[in-house]
Write a structure and sequence with these properties.
It contains 13 helices and 28 strands. It has about 700 residues and is of the alpha+beta class. α4 packs across α6 and α6 packs antiparallel against α7.
Length: about 700
Amino acid sequence: MAKGSNVSLSSLSEHADSVMVSLSWSSPSGEGDADVSVLLIGADGKVRGNSDFYFYNNPTAPDGSVQLLGSAPTENGTEDRIRLDLTPLPADVDRAVIAASRHRRAHFGELESIRLTLKDGSGDDVLGFSIDDATVESAFVFGEIYRRNGEWKFRAVGQGYDTGLAGLATDYGIEVDEDDDRDDETVGATDGQSCDVREIDGNRSAETSPGENLGAVQAAAVPKPVAAPLTVPAPREPEPTAPAPARRVRTAKKKVTLPRTAKPSLAENDNWRTARLFPASSLKSDREREVRATSILLSVMAQVPEFGRRLTAAFGAPAGRMETFTEVSLPHGESPKRPDGILRVERAGKLWTALVETKTNGNALKPEQIQDYMDIASRRGYEAVITLSNDVALEGSPLVDVKVDGRRKHKVTLWHLSWAEVTQQAQMLLRHEGVRQESHAWLLQELLHYLQHENSGCHGFQNMGPAWVPVRNGIDEETLSPGDPRTVQVVESWERLVRQVCLRIGGELGAKVVPVQRAKRGTDPQSRRIEVADRFCVDGKLDAEIRIDGVPGILTISADLRMGRLRTSIEVAAPDQGYPLSWVKRLMKQLGEAPADLHVQTLLEGEAAGPRGTLEKLRLEPGDLLAKGPERITGFRLSLSKSVGNARGNSESGFIRSVDAAVDRFHTTVVARLEHGGSRRPRSAPPLEVTA
């Protein structure tokens, strides 16, 4: 697009309600960087409040409309990604301004290849805009997505500011403090009071220190004067007080993450064990595991605001002061009930409360127990019940069935959280996004160590369920018939396993990793699973596809239970320019350290089968991958196969362990070494429905 031009998003794609905006640049010195930001603007051209300013200290909107996903390295530089969901944006938001700024007002003219790219909901590039005239500007408005006559449009702006983020934000009604040397944690208070300043989602709130208001305490300590018998002094006029200064948005970038390389240990030998805040070696019973895991998790949530907010935002909890409790007794009929935990958030004098029920070590949630907690929460005016277990929730397939009394005015929502999600969120903050205090980073590190300890019982989904063995036997003996309800249970377990794989990879990479379903829009999840189960009865295969941000293709997993083989593969598009032999040689170079048994096949236009072979042979003769006929090469399929485990658990020969190991090996040795190729897709395929 040209600077100043605009276009309707609906004219570019049918999937424009949710878009991914990427801002990219490169630096000749390799040290240049910039930070993205989004401002939600009203009809008057100003933000409605400071909370409409999303940047590195306030990366996510509570309603999910704005998500700053962070930066990732590219072949030529850096790319920062922003997810914009236009559907939940309030009606009084007129436009979303997409901008970037440089630290300490460095110049954008020092960067190269400055570009905005917008992808639609299916992941296809729909527009691009390059900024070629940057000089001394330290901030830029790249573009804006705005409403016009009931539809969303994009305008390529390209307006620069030499006053940095402060100048840009001030134009839209925000007062910014860019003092990077000032301490974020405490500020001085007047009148002898000490204040604890907390920053949650970019908003600062001051609370007086323990002991209540110091002025009130001092006043109470002074003895009351005895009134004079003959004269009554006239009341004194209160002295005028200066109005409170407008609250400013602090943009000092202060984040703590784990160092890439650990410090050398001071232990004399490997037998010395590091002292842990949350020891797990002495745990023996399931009850001990549940009690300790609940207490550890809730305490860390309360002490690390970024972590607590990350876990509760999806449940509708406000951003505010959080307190957590365990083993609280609540009245219920003749015998009181004791949920594993209670979580409370206070915001502007209002309380949000959730009951927490925890299971570890693969133990199932008990429907009657959850029903009791739902009833208690409804009677007491609580907002939610949160279940936490090794299982992974699926849309359209609840882990527990509860009945909601429609006669009650107060509605309670039931949410589920898996231990795999907890681990992933801790990894994202600790290793990729960072927290504001070193002590908070240490707490997250100790929590992560506990969750991953073999004795904690918090290892996520680890059992394919009771239907796995009979269904697998039916596949081997060819006695399984379509319509068997056990096959749907296996398909659900497979889907849970794939979702957990996505959580684990996403936490390790710091990237968005989601499963995708090739299904018609509007298809009911349970109907889709029944259809997949019927195909599974016929061919004995369980298939899944995973989209990983920054990967030039979709990772496919196929478990052929009849043949006892597990196959991981990816299709890479051919470049738009160059010669086929150059493409092949470049691919061989990228796969220089990939396994020799990697299978490579050329994809041709149409349905013609292309040349194929193992990497071991193709390294010697890369030309063997070239098409022998006139068909055009559209891409290459890379795949690895291995035997699949038989057991349903996570033992060495287990199916779940086999899937984890296969995906890890394929991603580490193959996918992570691929570079972005051309923009066209290797094959035409049905639309992808991304399921979070």
